Amino acid sequence: MSRLLLVICALFSASVFANTKVVFETTLGHFTIQLNEEKAPLSSANFLRYVKDGSYEGTIFHRVIPGFMAQGGGFDENMTQIKTYGPIKNEASNGLKNKTASVAMARTNNPDSATRQFFINYSDNEFLNYSSSNPGYAVFGQVVEGFDVVKKMASVPTKSNGFMKDIPATPIVVTKVTIQK
Fold it and tell me: What's the pTM value of the predicted model, to 2 decimals?
């Protein structure tokens, strides 16, 4: 009987923290993000909310800085900001680090202001990590396939538009987003 209970518990915990994979198809190719739902449950659930409602489709990577990061999810090709759900609590103290190919929530100066925008780190950006003196940026996933596509974004020439800089001159559009089964 106890063996059956262990099997049931193992199956339950595996399904709760399944580390969902999300495939992004873009005008430059596709890449896959694996979420860390165990260590970043709020950020992962928030991200999946936008995936499931389909509103990441048609957005662009609106800020790409070689050697730093590629940011997307918040604007369409006309640089019109996309509607958001309410902000979430910052989970940057979860132990996950802003390392190469990690995915984190973008936010304003308010640590608890992340909504739909996310970024993919091109390098180990330790200054974005949580510490006693820095609220940090919450990592919730990792690019596990297609990082070459993400790196290709950094080769696209950029422009400025008003106060916004580092906007790819040729829009990098998210054409489809699916949860990998």
Answer: 0.90
